[in-house]
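Colleagues,

Please find the record for the three-part complex below.
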Amino acid sequence: MTSTDLFVSPVGRVEGDLDVRVTITDGVVTDAWTEAAMFRGFEMILKGKDPQAGLIVTPRICGICGGSHLYKACYALDTAWKTHVPENATLVRNIAQACETLQSIPRYFYALFAIDLVNKNYAKSTLYDECVRRFAPYVGSAYQKGVVLSNKPVEVYALFGGQWPHSSFMVPGGVMSAPSLADITRATAILNHWKDNWLEAEWLGCSVDRWLEVKTWEDMQAWVEENESQYNSDCGFFIRFCLEVGLHKYGGGVGNYLAAGTYFEPSLYDQPTPEGRNAALIGRSGVYAGGKHFEYDHLRVSEDVSHSYFKGDKPLHPWDGETIPLDVAEARKAGKYSWAKSPRYDVPDLGRVPLEAGPLARRMAAGNPDRAEHQDYDPLFIDLYEKLGPSVFVRQMARMHEAPKYFKWVMDWLSRVDLHGSFYTKPEEPLSGKGFGGTEAARGALQDWIVLEDGKIENYQVVTPTAWNIGPRDSNAANGPIEAALIGSPIVDMEDPVELGHVARSFDSCLVCTVHAYDGKTGRELNKFVINGMV
Amino acid sequence: MTQALPHELLSDEFAPPPCDVLVMGCGNILRGDDALGPQLIRRLFAEGVPRGVRLVDGGTAGMDVAFQMQGAGRVVIVDAAMTGNPPGTVYRVPGEELAALPPASGLHTHSFRWDHALAFGRWLLGPKCPADVTVLLVEVRDVEPGADLSPEAMSGMETVAALLREDFFPAPESDLVEVTADGYLHLDAELMQRYFPSGVVGAMRDGEGIYLVPIRSQANGGHLLKQRNARGDRSLLLREILDRDPVPGPKRVDWDVQRGALAVRFD
Amino acid sequence: MASVLWLQGGACSGNTMSFLNAEEPNVVDLIVDFGLELLWHPSLGLELGENAQKIFWDCARGDRPLDIFVLEGTVIEKDGYDRFADREMKDWVTDLANAASIVVALGDCACWGGIPAMEPNPSQSTGLQFHKRDKGGFLGPDWTSKAGLPVINIPGCPAHPDWITQIIVALATGRTADIALDDLHRPQTFFKTFTQTGCTRVQFFDYKQSTVSFGEGTRTGCLFYEFGCRGPMTHSPCNRILWNRQSSKTRAGMPCLGCTEPEFPFFDLHKGTVFKTQKVSGVIPKEVPEGADHLTYMAQASAARIAAPQWSKEDMFVV
């Protein structure tokens, strides 16, 4: 029986570089251990600053989903200041948030994930040559179209916000801009161009509406076979390729999920409050754990620092959270090993179990039949979860499924903008208050908790989706979602463990994730590879 | 050992590049209407001439004009004349007369006229001297030092300029640019170097088109002509200037002398 | 063709994401068509693990020629806070900057320290050759690269894709000498003019007609007087070279934050400074456009207000 540890050195980015150490026994991953290596201290920087500082600073936590940071930072302030947000402003914010995600889906898929599918380990597959033709980095036909056209949705963002990345045009009380008719028609034209030239022409091979008729695993399989266009689209090909090489058999993870939800029904969230949030959401929030759906309650969130380089002896709700870094060398001696705090959610009856954030979490939340008229209800992934179980394949399909779905939502919101209406209501600026803002960035639940005192930020805590997915072991020593997903992965070639790349990248983490391999018996480092976590 | 002929001593290294048409303006720029030839050259230079046309100021260049004749397909020499006819009259010296010119003698650098130029040129260049030579003369009246060109001389000069463009200059190749489906204006590297060497332009809307005005330095603002490939071809985002993208396809451009700008028509 | 090695320090990837929006040439063109040799990039680089490390070491040791070294993100000086490929990232920065012919600092973080360097600067972040406006930063004020140039700063938070691609293209095609730098080492092509140059609200600025409210209020007026717009004081081409082919912040009603200048974010985002023009006696803007003085400004302001035509008091950017 051979046991090997794989440890890949980090290629950091964003709030850090992620190291993952993996133990392999007889060609299967049996343990995994994550560590985040960079620290910039945004929460410390925000303390004592102007209440609106988060609108400028939090997008710089991550330039890939900076617009998502802006969205939730704005709602955190809306709830703290108890503002009025006109319906037009809610629509514009929804449109902008969705456009960022629509950009991210193809850019991430082709430039970060699909490039691994051309690994030589798959050369024996009958589909390999086709895979290379489509997905080879820079030169692949699908790569080129997908990546180059991915900037179209953020042109729409720029119509409302002036630029992408990094506009701070969402402010408490509404938005800074007021579009003209030309802006709306232009936005519609740009998105239609994107749909015509990539979403339907390249990815789906059918209309958006046809794809959204797929509600079960059987529907999906029948869809692939239905005609040549769908069979040979990037989506049809991807499904066939995953099934052939086995990407549906591993990478499942913890099987428990958390979604904070995003996009508000304008008439239901014009006086934003934390309590009123769930009911107003179009993209659902929710926790799915132990086979059951639970309503999402932000008060059940806590951050554990027992293995992080921060001071603290018990998990705290973010409103009470602290960010006091320790000396790294001293902290390591005490058994701490990561800069990432470990967020946990206290699930009723189950306790603080690790929960996966991301598109699959959203799809699971959307499968909860108990919902209001305006809310997304989508049983497809509950079906896939039950029939296939989670895996790299299912996680990626969840991600791609959002492209046609959100496209339709954005077109609807654009048509509802009342150009003669109001886009902003000037708020009072109370000197103290507490707020909670959340959204779904492309990679998962992203949330801010703000405490204001004396007209300044007293406390600001940001919990990113990657923190949910990669946080170190908490005081219960449970594996985090990425760790759990790596466990059980079959490694065909120790010299080139591409399977680990698929799993880690399927989480689309904000950190460049490096996976290390060590020989479990001798401690000798066997292999190192960096998973370019494009963020 | 036979003595080398003059044209054999000419080194190709220092030959001017070949051209289709060489226009040479002779005369003294300081002396009233005798400035006609050099003034014509300056005028043609400012207006721009098609590719293949070379201009030589024969005012004070003296013998150099003969060296300039190397490699020219056709030569046109312009000069002032005083024959007693009405000022402003334009003559074309007949070909037979040109053939029969006496050899160069009594050349004087301060009095180098069209016939000297031709005679000297033939002596110098021998068989390399262009065969196709035309001489255009404009009758003038006053050659007082310091005087401006008289209206008649000016009119004669304009007639010559028009004649040159009609009969002698190659048809201007119309430059083409392209509007892409993505709303970019593509200009090739050569066009950019010719009109906008700094790489930035000012733009002015005009009906169904725009004018692009050269801006002297990159530091002075303006719209950026982005380099889009290794050859140096350029790209300008039309949305920076227009509200709507023009219909894609090739578009003619012309240099507008009055405005000092490149006219781009989209209709 | 030119070889480029692009690393990230204390970064958010905003500049990379902006770079991916590039057009004419786009990123695929740059690499496939133009022949830019992108030795490595945290997102786009193809080598992994040991192969990637070999590239870094070969360049650092001078065994492999490196034309352009690009750093995105701050240099984190505190030990243990940014480790990369088995070393402190700052050690990689030292070696690679000294090995390259030309060094480019991309984005505010690499240029001046940016947002991570805001008080209390927990990671001890700094820029490559400046810390805010002070020359020095990580490499020191007199440092020059092998080609004899200081660090070329392409600031912005993020930098616009054209600022990035056009400079890389110029460097890669041997036009380095054409790039004139200002006293903050920014290419003059982009950074001599102001954000205000080409702003659609400039006529309102001239007549001192302020926007009074966000949302539909931004259909008229200038954002300088009330909303903290730094357009007249900020060197950038944001209103000459559009963002995402569409627009700019000020056109969309968002005040310019001055993100190409070393002091960004201004006033350290202290209480009362965000989206609010700082004024003396609540009336007179503390900062007037570059090159102006307060007295002249005041006199001109009164005259302008008196002269303001009726249209300047109405909505211009109408439905």
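Chain B touches chain C at residues 182-184, 199-200, 218-224, 226-230, 232, 235, 237, 239-240 (CB under 8 Å).

Comments are welcome before we finalize the supplementary table.
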